[in-house]
Amino acid sequence: MNPKEPWYELKNAIRFEGERVYVLDETRLRGPALDPLVYAAVFGEGEERAAARALLWELGQALGIRPASIHDLYMARGRGETSANWTVPAMNLRTLTYDMARAVFRAALSRNVGAMIFEIARSEIGYTDQRPAEYATVIIGAAIREGYRGPLFIQGDHFQVSAKKYASAPDEEVQAVDDLIREAIASGFFNIDIDTSTLVDLSRPTVPEQQRMNYELCARFTRVIRDLQPAGVTISVGGEIGEVGGQNSTEEELRAFIDGYNASLPDGMAALSKLSIQTGTSHGGVVLPDGTLARVKIDFDTLERLSRVAREEYGLAGAVQHGASTLPPEAFHKFPEVGTAEIHLATAFQNYLYEHPLFPAPLREEIYAHLHKHHAGEWKEGKTEEQFIYEVRKKALGPFKREIWNLPEDVRAEIRQGLEEQFRFLFEQLGVTDTADLVARYVQAPEIHKTPADFGAEKALSISEGLAD
Asked: Measured between alpha carbons, how far is 13 from 4 in angstroms, rounded to an integer?
């Protein structure tokens, strides 16, 4: 090994035999010597980056830390083989991903959690500068670092069709989502949420007609996913019937969508495992003029009713709640009580970082100056500066990714500790403690090997503006 290679410090912890890697010393592997390898997987270039990603992937394979689909567990829930009083947290880690994921795994290990999802949306891939291969290998690296073992559920969130782009160039927009699906699956994203709810047409006279474009295109993307999924894997696919931030969903819409979707699939093809609905939230929360968040009232009756219909009539795991991370703490225990299958959490973790007292003030000021310079056109009339900054600061996470990753270790350690407490609280409130055995009962993570050639140059992705998170 070359002393300049990022894995040189691991030389006594691992052994290479051909294209396979074997772990000799897990204790050393879980130490600081792993950190340069993860850093190279993110910020390395060319062959070094590809080799770092391949090594992290193979270490995961050797240790039983493998990407998997949650489909079979969700289907068991839909059949009534498990209770419905647990809600899977799907966590969008937009920045400082290695440290945030380490905090997740520490919290999970302390509560024996197996039912949890790491996800990133099409929009976030763009503005956070995290392509699927990077995201997946960083999550694997964090699991190795903290000693976590078991299936990893990595998810493409809001693989969404832009209504504006679709109206002007439908074939190009569909191809853009196809390309993203292909890249994500190749990177270990065995859970994908398709979002074609942007194409619901409320001007149509009947609900089935309003949902037609939504379910037909969702079914089309499902067929693409089924053609690409690895042997032995049934990728968990989610659909969506109402754009988050719009009017609350109804039973009629749910039935119209699922009936139309199922009829659009070939006989025998695995269908949806869950369905996202709208119940009164918005992504990132509603920001008041002073920069604080308004309290949002979720329609838990709708969530309970539609989750029940999804399970009892269609065999799905239930309904999915988006835009949940900025809700008040006392709201979270309600989700498992009403049978919610999954909730998506993102903005609160980003906020915790930006607002942490140890986050360097000069870096925050530099970031905000960047937002004023490059995103001034998004400052809507009537909005205060606090509202503007809150709404657009997520878009600085890509341009300042390296600076944030390079925060001093003592600062990152404090952030990890605070986030670990948040994740532990969420796991307890959502009822997913002691779910590791449940996951092991229903989920088989496939053994898939990769070489640096599988992590070569990435093709350009088309990320439209105005997509949901």
From this structure: 17
Please list the residues that pair with 153 across neighbouring strands.
Answer: 68, 117
Please indicate, yes or no, whether residues 47 and 83 belong to a single structural domain of this protein. no
- Is there a domain that residue 451 lies in? no
- pTM given for the model: 0.95
Give dist(CA 387, CA 394) in Å, integer.
13
Both 121 and 208 in one domain: the answer is yes
Taking each helix axis from N to C end, the angle separating 35-43 and 97-111, rounded to the nearest 10 degrees, works out to 130
In three-state secondary structure terms, 20 is strand
* CA 76 from centre of chain: 22
In this structure, the answer to whether residues 120 and 231 fall within a common structural domain is yes
The residue type at 368: Y
Q: Which residue(s) pair with 23 in the sheet?
A: 14
pLDDT per residue as tens digits for the range 218-235: 999 999 999 999 999 999
The model's pLDDT over 368-392, given as tens digits with 9 standing for 90+, comes to: 999 999 999 989 988 899 989 999 9
DSSP single-letter state for residue 397: T
What Å distances lie between residue 301 and 80, 88, 207, 327, 343, CA to CA? 21, 19, 21, 17, 16
Question: In which domain, by residue range, is 53 found?
Answer: 8-63
Strand runs (DSSP E) across 93-166, as ranges?
117-121, 152-160
3-state secondary structure of 194: strand
